[in-house]
Specification:
Largest sheet: 5 strands, parallel
Mean pLDDT: 86
Radius of gyration: 15 Å
Number of strands: 5
Oligomer: single chain
Strand order of the largest sheet: 3-2-1-4-5
CATH architecture: 3-Layer(aba) Sandwich
């Protein structure tokens, strides 16, 4: 059985990654992990305005909306899958999930940034390519 992690955020890029992962694994025994990473919101201003319970509730609502979107647009319901919410830096959390779940592959979308923005901000895809313990497929 192959285990595939697909980071999803509701974007067209992540939708394409789901479709491509299903295409690649067609006819194979598989387990698919739909992974959504929500921001931590651990800033002093946010903590003043909202309780930890409110923040967690918002993160869960946002994550469930992303999963619902992904399930509506793709035939993933016919494949064995599970959803997973993680909180924090997307690149780091994708790599951590890959290690913890002993993933065979990560299939993810790539949202192209200009070279200046990429140099300043970094790229989740680049981080994952350099830090993950398994092969990564980047879907344009």
């Amino acid at each position: 059985m192959i285990k595939i992690i697909i980071p999803v955020d509701g974007s067209p890029g992540s939708d394409k990654a789901v479709e491509f992962a299903l295409f690649l694994s067609e006819g194979k025994e598989k387990e698919i992990i739909l992974l959504n990473i929500q921001p931590g919101y651990n800033t002093p201003n946010i903590k003043i305005l909202f309780s930890q319970e409110q923040i967690r509730s918002l993160q869960e609502e946002e994550s469930q909306a992303v999963f619902a979107h992904t399930l509506e647009l793709t035939p993933i319901a016919s494949a064995p899958f599970r959803t997973r919410l993680r909180i924090g830096d997307p690149g780091r959390e994708i790599c951590t999930e890959a290690k913890e779940s002993k993933a065979d592959y990560i299939v993810m979308g790539y949202r192209g940034l200009g070279s200046v923005k990429r140099a300043i901000m970094g790229s989740v895809a680049t981080h994952v390519l350099h830090e993950t313990p398994c092969p990564v497929v980047i879907v344009p």
